[in-house]
């Protein structure tokens, strides 16, 4: 009887269709649990589509009952742009204190609010923060909150965490192939489906997704309930056009870059990382700089790394297609990598230029170059320059 009851109590299906979440929740909880008497800032960061919001939602719902007050602000970036800082501050502190508060200033809090909140242990989550100053504008000084309070922030911009001196940082990484396949199967198949018949196609989906949960879920939604022919057609189409939902999410990070950073990002995606192989950082700094004395590329690369648009690592084996020629290089050197979905987003940005501007700033496909030269419809700015630089880079 006991065994039967245990089986009935234990769900046989992952109703939330979440994979690998327990370990991530445990990690965040361990960060929250440090220095229990202090008020602490915990940051969760990474590129779009990695599951940051899902993770902090689970943590918030699990722990909020242990605090005197709690508040979850979803999409802080959008909310601030739409409503402004003051209405959001009113909402946050009214919910925490349990009554309507009157706040008129964007950069300070009334004394009675500061006094009351100082005696409360609170849990606050600010999701998708992008502006470096929004945290302080919304909440004021962290010291205003009572002992044991926790403020959790998710962001695509690591500089938000650095500028506000966060106590802990947790970067969400991509799924393993096994986790991605499990997530896909949970979202695309019903128990009555003949899952084995789709094993090969499912593996193609996982290979394309490269561990990004958003890509897996979007494809599962498109393929669920369809025949093999539709699966094959959808996967073939991905070779020419990225998923719109994924493109829209990832492009937020691109939009936040300044003009110079955008140019460096597109050059990396379209030329230097075009073959999906790691490239030496020193070579990139030399090839991307504007002049002999220009050292701004180092800053540009750091900004791209902080927004999780590239990865800079001393371990070139992070990329399965790492160049053979760098295996003999010094282990002290660093290499640049870009995730496939991020790179495809960059390619699509350049492709769309032709519809809005009448020409494209970059060409890399031989067929496109041939058509451009034949029809003389686009400006081939820097094409031959980059071809020369790229060849020099491969020989270096």
Write up what this structure looks like.
The protein is of the alpha/beta class and 396 residues long. The chain has three domains: 151 residues, 3-Layer(aba) Sandwich (Rossmann fold), CATH 3.40.50.300; 64 residues; 138 residues, Arc Repressor Mutant, subunit A, CATH 1.10.10. The chain has 19 helices and eight strands. Strands 2-3-4-1-5 form a five-stranded parallel beta sheet, with helices on both faces. The protein has a three-stranded antiparallel beta sheet with strand order 6-8-7. Helix 9 packs across helix 10, helix 10 runs antiparallel to helix 11 and helix 14 packs across helix 16. The longest helix is centred in the last third of the chain and has 17 residues. The N terminus and C terminus are likely disordered.
SSE map:
Layout: H1 2-9, H2 21-33, E1 40-45, H3 52-63, E2 69-73, H4 76-83, H5 85-97, H6 111-117, E3 122-126, H7 134-139, E4 150-155, H8 158-163, E5 168-171, H9 177-188, H10 199-209, H11 213-223, H12 228-237, H13 244-255, H14 259-272, E6 279-280, H15 281-288, H16 297-306, E7 311-313, E8 335-337, H17 340-356, H18 366-375, H19 383-395
Helix pairs in contact: 2-3, 4-5, 9-10, 9-11, 10-11, 13-17, 14-16, 14-17
